[in-house]
């Protein structure tokens, strides 16, 4: 059997693509580099949109990236069911691309926050969170200045009522509505989270945990069973 | 040639911590009587031709597509005369 292939996208200004590729490799899948300027998803089975400052965060975080040539391919593929995980800047891009509702804006404190963050898995019936127990508490690094999740009251109510809040902060670091740290689309294949699972996969590098591995084993399990 | 101005502001219900920080700084600088500050963005769009209805419709489309994130922001379009 050939290994599951997970695409890792690089935009100009992306920072976490190497860690993401390493994490994909650690769980036994193959990381496939995807370039923002290509109209080519290279037939991957899933896509990881890493963090960073794509296009310098000009205008708004993720606002320019969503119009990258690769996104022309990724958006319809995600709508058709391709599993996509966006972390940090990747989450911002997914919101700007309207693959996920709402938006991420300036932290209420105005401070850039960089710390190990306790979180609760609120929905494990997604392509990227099935390895966790429902309600399981985990710790992942966060590092962002614009991670405050906002949406209309109707959207928040719908997310809550339909179990689409995937991850919630335990101790709100940025003023996010309802402590929301991550959400999923209706189908559960597109997930966006502010924390960084790709930085919490190996104890050797001083990560607060290896809880990040769960996101990668979740997608691997899904692809192998598919 | 005409210049069209697009103003983009966070929707009133969205917290604007940058505006709040500015409002807090003003009294320290000796400015009084300010009850609130909200910060936004201004875009100056230079058109090749006149700012007729067709051109303005295009600018509104630009605002809707790229300049503003209408999930959290409102925009307004006007011709600078």
UniProtKB/TrEMBL annotation, chain A:
Its EC number is 6.3.5.3, 3.5.1.2. Signal peptide: none annotated. PROSITE patterns: GATASE_TYPE_1 (PS51273). The active site is at 88 (nucleophile), 196, 198. The keyword Cytoplasm applies. Pfam families: GATase_5 (PF13507). It is found in: Cytoplasm. GO terms for biological process: 'de novo' IMP biosynthetic process. It catalyses: N(2)-formyl-N(1)-(5-phospho-beta-D-ribosyl)glycinamide + L-glutamine + ATP + H2O = 2-formamido-N(1)-(5-O-phospho-beta-D-ribosyl)acetamidine + L-glutamate + ADP + phosphate + H(+); L-glutamine + H2O = L-glutamate + NH4(+). Transmembrane segments: none annotated. Keywords: ATP-binding, Cytoplasm, Glutamine amidotransferase, Hydrolase, Ligase, Nucleotide-binding, Purine biosynthesis. It comes from the Bacteria. SUPFAM superfamilies: Class I glutamine amidotransferase-like. Pathway: Purine metabolism; IMP biosynthesis via de novo pathway; 5-amino-1-(5-phospho-D-ribosyl)imidazole from N(2)-formyl-N(1)-(5-phospho-D-ribosyl)glycinamide: step 1/2. Part of the FGAM synthase complex composed of 1 PurL, 1 PurQ and 2 PurS subunits. Part of the phosphoribosylformylglycinamidine synthase complex involved in the purines biosynthetic pathway. Catalyzes the ATP-dependent conversion of formylglycinamide ribonucleotide (FGAR) and glutamine to yield formylglycinamidine ribonucleotide (FGAM) and glutamate. The FGAM synthase complex is composed of three subunits. PurQ produces an ammonia molecule by converting glutamine to glutamate. PurL transfers the ammonia molecule to FGAR to form FGAM in an ATP-dependent manner. This is Phosphoribosylformylglycinamidine synthase subunit PurQ. It comes from Nonomuraea montanisoli.
TrEMBL record, chain B:
Pathway: Purine metabolism; IMP biosynthesis via de novo pathway; 5-amino-1-(5-phospho-D-ribosyl)imidazole from N(2)-formyl-N(1)-(5-phospho-D-ribosyl)glycinamide: step 1/2. GO terms for biological process: 'de novo' IMP biosynthetic process. InterPro entries: PurS, PurS-like_sf. Keywords: ATP-binding, Cytoplasm, Ligase, Nucleotide-binding, Purine biosynthesis. Part of the FGAM synthase complex composed of 1 PurL, 1 PurQ and 2 PurS subunits. This is Phosphoribosylformylglycinamidine synthase subunit PurS. The lineage of its organism: Bacteria, Bacillati, Actinomycetota, Actinomycetes, Streptosporangiales. GO terms for cellular component: cytoplasm. Belongs to the PurS family. It comes from Nonomuraea montanisoli. GO terms for molecular function: ATP binding; phosphoribosylformylglycinamidine synthase activity.
């Amino acid at each position: 059997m050939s290994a599951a292939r997970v695409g890792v996208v690089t935009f100009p200004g992306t920072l976490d693509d190497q860690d993401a590729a390493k994490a994909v490799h650690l769980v036994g899948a193959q990381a496939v580099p995807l370039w923002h300027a290509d109209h080519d998803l290279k037939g991957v089975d899933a896509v990881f949109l890493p963090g960073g400052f794509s296009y310098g965060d000009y205008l708004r975080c993720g606002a320019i990236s969503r119009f990258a040539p690769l996104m022309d391919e990724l958006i319809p593929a995600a709508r058709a069911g391709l599993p996509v995980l966006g972390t940090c800047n990747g989450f911002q891009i997914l919101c700007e691309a309207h693959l996920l509702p709402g938006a991420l804006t300036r932290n209420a404190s105005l401070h850039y926050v960089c710390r190990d963050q306790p979180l609760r898995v609120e929905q494990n019936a997604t392509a990227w969170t099935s390895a966790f127990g429902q309600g399981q508490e985990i710790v992942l690094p966060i590092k962002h200045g614009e991670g405050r999740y906002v949406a209309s009251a109707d959207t928040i109510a719908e997310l809550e009522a339909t179990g689409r809040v995937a991850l919630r902060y335990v101790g709100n670091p940025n003023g996010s509505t309802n402590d929301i740290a991550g959400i999923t689309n209706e189908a559960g294949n597109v997930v966006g989270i502010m924390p960084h699972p790709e930085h919490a996969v190996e104890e050797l590098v001083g990560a607060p945990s290896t809880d990040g591995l769960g996101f990668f084993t979740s997608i691997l399990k899904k692809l192998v069973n598919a | 040639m005409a210049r069209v101005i697009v103003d983009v502001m966070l929707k009133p219900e969205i917290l604007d911590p940058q505006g709040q920080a500015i409002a807090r700084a003003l009294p320290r600088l000796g400015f009084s009587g300010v009850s609130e500050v909200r910060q936004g963005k201004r875009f100056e769009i230079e058109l090749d031709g006149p700012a007729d209805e067709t051109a303005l419709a295009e600018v509104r489309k630009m605002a809707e597509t790229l300049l503003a994130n209408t999930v959290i922001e409102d925009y307004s379009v006007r011709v600078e005369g």
